[in-house]
Specification:
The chain is 39% helix and 13% strand. By secondary structure, it is α/β, with parallel strands linked by helices. Strands 9-8-7-6-5-4-10 form a 7-stranded parallel beta sheet. A 3-stranded antiparallel beta sheet has the order 1-2-3. A two-stranded antiparallel sheet has the order 11-12. Helix 9 packs parallel to helix 10. The radius of gyration is 21 Å and the shape is globular.
């Protein structure tokens, strides 16, 4: 029996915020005073078919979440009443239509790109559910030509051509069943941040022991940037648990200029950091290049991409040989189509995709892309790793929580992105009238004193 034609019946966007600042979870050099409040501009597409919906969202850290909600609505509302075929007939052309919007594109990247990325991701979530497959499987089984057609190569051809992309995808399409079985048997290795800037050292150690001893995570990360001695103390406490040979990454969240980044990391080099993440401004290719040239001889790799505005940012960093670990973010750029471009760029330059996922719901989403990458593009590599956090990813928050076993992501089998939040969590944390916020109306008031 033929499947029923899908028509989009309604769109809802909700401003969801969590007071993570109460515990300093998520704090770093930039986002400490006030501490961040993990939030989501949460989009749900409803259809004429009962229980068939699509979910997408943008991760923020509190203030401004409402602005992203309004931007998502601007892109999404014109779809109400449309057939899903407006997307599925040519997803690449649809992506280009949003990216090239004759008025909204003037706003360029940031809120604009994140907003239409949420819509793109919600549509892919809907399509995957319609086909009753997790997103990683839907993409992994797609013919190479169809995947290539998802990508806009206009600004990428000087580094990645459609022919390049086809060859990268086709080489692992052969033996697909073997690659799928291999990744299911051993999912992507995970790592987490234990050393948030706002935590006491005893709390850093407790979190490290949980991640290293109990969860068997192969790497731990610490935030750095504000004060060398405080950074050293945080890293030494983590080293006391994982040993001198354990993998310890550090993250400056863009705090430094190039000279300060080099000096700061040289002062910490004796603690053998594996990588420095976002050492400087995300658009400053020359600064990244200078930092890489200075720190690689000391064995410190350069990671970045959490705040990269799109595939062009990755292209420039990779062409400049300024990036070692490619940290895609599932809710930062223009959705699945652009994430595919970034994954292909990483493979073209033989760099591992090591996703950023330190936010509410991001682990659920990005696991789909890193699993797809391991199956169809980059393969399973010893230097690949995927971020994970253990708060706001449990059964009280997510309908299908991420599973970690022996330090690795378990491959999800739930159709779609598997990143819906529970109705009770959404209702309680909707701003400003959810139970969590009803008596805290001044929490997000801007102050300059």
């Amino acid at each position: 029996m033929a499947k029923q034609k899908v028509r989009i019946s309604s769109i809802s966007v909700r401003d969801i915020r969590v007071p993570t600042s109460d515990s300093s979870s998520g704090s770093d050099a930039f986002h400490k005073n006030p501490d961040p409040d993990y939030s989501a501009a949460y989009l749900e597409i409803s259809t004429n078919i009962p229980n068939l919906n699509g979910v997408g969202f943008v991760f923020t850290i509190g203030n401004g979440n409402d602005l992203v909600c309004r931007a998502i609505e601007a892109y999404a509302q014109p779809l109400v009443g449309c057939s899903l075929g407006v997307f599925t007939s040519n997803p690449g052309a649809f992506w280009k239509k949003l990216n090239d919007h004759p008025q909204l594109r003037w706003l360029r990247d940031g809120i604009n790109r994140m907003a239409f990325g949420a819509l793109i991701n919600a549509l892919w979530d809907l399509v995957s559910k319609y086909h009753n497959k997790p997103l990683w499987q839907l993409l992994a089984e797609m013919p190479s030509e169809e995947l290539v057609n998802l990508v806009d190569f206009r600004y990428l051809r000087d580094a990645l051509t459609p022919e390049d992309a086809f060859a990268l995808l086709e080489r692992r399409f052969q033996g697909l069943d073997h690659h799928v079985a291999s990744v299911i048997a051993a999912g992507p290795p995970a790592y987490c941040t234990a050393g948030w800037s706002g935590l006491e050292l005893d709390d850093v150690e407790r979190r490290t022991r949980h991640a290293h001893d109990e969860l068997k995570l192969p790497a731990i990360k610490a935030k750095v940037g504000l004060d060398i001695e405080a950074d050293r103390a945080r890293m030494e406490r983590i080293r006391s648990v994982i040993g001198e040979n354990g993998k310890l990454g550090v993250d400056a969240n863009q705090w430094w200029g190039a000279p300060d980044a080099i000096a700061h990391m040289e002062a910490l080099a004796d603690l053998n950091p594996w990588f420095i993440e976002e050492p400087t401004h995300p658009d400053d290719v020359f600064a990244y290049q200078d930092i890489a040239r200075a720190l690689r001889p000391r064995g410190i790799l350069i990671a970045g991409g959490e705040h990269a505005s799109g595939a062009v940012s990755f292209k420039n960093l990779l062409r400049a040989d300024a990036l070692d670990l490619v940290q895609i973010d599932v809710a930062r750029v223009g959705g699945v189509n652009e994430l595919l471009a970034e994954i292909l760029l990483a493979a073209k330059f033989d760099k591992p995709v090591c996703p950023h996922a330190g936010g509410i719901g991001l682990c659920n989403g990005v696991q789909q892309l890193t699993i797809f990458d391991q199956i169809r593009v980059g393969g399973q590599r010893d230097d690949q790793i995927c971020e994970w956090i253990d708060f706001l990813h449990d059964g009280d928050t997510m309908l299908t929580p991420v599973e970690i076993k022996d330090g690795r992501y378990c491959v999800p089998q739930v159709p779609g992105f598997s990143w819906e939040m529970t109705p009770s969590f959404l209702d309680a944390h909707e701003f400003p009238n959810g139970d969590v916020w009803r008596d805290r109306q001044e929490h997000f008031a801007l102050r300059y004193a």
